[in-house]
């Protein structure tokens, strides 16, 4: 019998393959694959213990908001990040100055995951170039301080800092990725990081062009 989603073993390769489907030929970013990539990462985080559940709850909430949009009646407009931005802006569906009529627009929701993607990029790059005795908690909090932390309130930063302290060591981390030897993990990360960076850069540029990088 097939395993339920919760029981499925995490596979870094599967997650990275999903992210690799994100980019269309003309460099648009497919929301469906983007969100699927995040679902896989959340599965990984859940396998690390309940201390991370406040983080995964927030991520899942944002994933579900976006999934509702692309599965909903206006779903065709939510096929790519580019089409979503155009549709929501053209139709005044984004709260630009303060949260008001559209507190959960696609644009502001995706922005939160986009900022988290930068954290992921920085963290994975540190993992890739680290030696065996490097602490994942240090790599994770450095990546967090350089990215997401700037957008989080003090209380969230404190809670995140405490959660990072119980991250398993690098060898266990690599094992849970389910890729093979450390060398194979490092090589897979080396292949995947340029793609993650590209998805991040395209989204960042698009949001900057439309002055959406500070959406409330
Ligand atoms: C592949 C192997 C290694 C990498 C494994 C990574 C697994 C990570 C999976 C999910 C990452 C979590 C994504 C978090 C999204 C956070 C979005 C956000 O910023 N939300 C805040 C703002 O939202 P609004 O209030 O404006 O709606 C919200 O306040 C945040 C609440 C929760 C705390 C978020 C802390 C984020 C820490 C990210 C590091 C995760 C560390 C996991 C370590 C494996």
UniProtKB/TrEMBL annotation:
Gene Ontology molecular functions: ceramide 1-phosphate binding; ceramide 1-phosphate transfer activity
SUPFAM superfamilies xref list: Glycolipid transfer protein, GLTP
Claim: Protein transport is one of the keywords in the record: no
GO biological process: negative regulation of interleukin-1 beta production
Catalytic activity: N-(hexadecanoyl)-sphing-4-enine-1-phosphate(in) = N-(hexadecanoyl)-sphing-4-enine-1-phosphate(out); N-(9Z-octadecenoyl)-sphing-4-enine-1-phosphate(in) = N-(9Z-octadecenoyl)-sphing-4-enine-1-phosphate(out)
Pfam families: GLTP (PF08718)
Residue ranges of domain Glycolipid transfer protein in the record: 30-178
UniProt-listed InterPro entries: GLTP_sf, Glycolipid_transfer_prot_dom
GO cellular component, as recorded: cytosol; endosome membrane; Golgi apparatus; nuclear outer membrane; plasma membrane
Membrane topology: Peripheral membrane protein
Alphabetic keyword roster: Cell membrane, Cytoplasm, Endosome, Golgi apparatus, Lipid transport, Lipid-binding, Membrane, Nucleus, Transport
Predominant location category: membrane
Tagged with keyword Transport: yes
Compartments where located: Cell membrane; Cytoplasm, Cytosol; Endosome membrane; Golgi apparatus, trans-Golgi network membrane
Record-stated family: Belongs to the GLTP family.
Protein name: Ceramide-1-phosphate transfer protein
Source lineage: Eukaryota, Metazoa, Chordata, Craniata, Vertebrata
